[in-house]
Specification:
Elements (H helix, E strand, L loop, with lengths): L18 E7 L4 H15 L6 H18 L4 E9 L2 E8 L20 H8 L2 E6 L5 E8 L12 E2 L6 E5 L2 E5 L11
Antiparallel strand pairs: 1-2, 2-3, 3-5, 4-5, 4-6, 7-8
Helix pairs in contact: 1-2, 2-3
């Protein structure tokens, strides 16, 4: 066999993959690098319209690991779905994250899950066998039918502009549909 020819028993993985999984210890710049990886995958999958919302949701979940998981170890998975994208972060802490209710106007934290709820179509948190938890979000691509049924919490993706979360205004760059009844 010639050295430059791949072995017939081992072929390179297909590109683009249907999912990407990474085990890591989260650091100060992890979210930025993960957003870049996610952006490449979304472009390859033809789902670039989900980039802003997916980037914000993934950043919030990874930041929660940095702030609330003592060893900062997690597994991040980004997967193409029939109707869009699913992102998830698993860690070894059993306590499920729950929205704390309205954050104090000047508080530096406490809005992350509210942002995830506003920017995604669905999100949730659940324990995993062996300990720890899985926190996930789903986004539907433009022009695709929603998946049958509903799981966990339904988000309400907002139009680009400003969104009020717990009385604070947040600039949003996602191009998505506004939802009646939200501020």
């Amino acid at each position: 066999m010639e050295p430059n020819n791949p072995s017939p028993m081992h072929s390179p993985p297909a590109w683009p993959p249907d999912s990407y999984t990474l085990n890591l210890t989260v650091g100060a710049h992890t979210a930025r690098h993960l957003r870049r990886i996610q952006r490449v995958l979304l472009d390859e999958w033809g789902l670039a319209e989900l980039e802003a919302a997916a980037g914000l949701a993934l950043t919030e979940l990874v930041t929660n690991v940095l702030r609330h998981v003592p060893d900062r170890k997690c597994t991040v998975r980004i997967a193409r779905q029939a109707t869009g994208l699913e992102g998830e972060v698993r860690d070894g802490v059993r306590e499920l994250p729950l929205p704390d209710g309205p954050a104090e106007p000047l508080a530096e934290g406490g809005r992350g899950l509210g942002i995830v709820a506003v920017m995604t179509d669905e999100w949730g948190a659940e324990p995993v066998p062996g300990g720890g938890k899985r926190v996930w979000f789903r986004l539907k691509g433009v022009g695709r039918e929603p998946a049958a049924g509903s799981v966990a919490r339904r988000g309400a993706r907002q139009a680009a502009g400003e969104v009020a979360i717990d009385g604070c205004r947040l600039a949003v760059g996602a191009i998505v549909r506004p939802t009646a009844g939200r501020k």
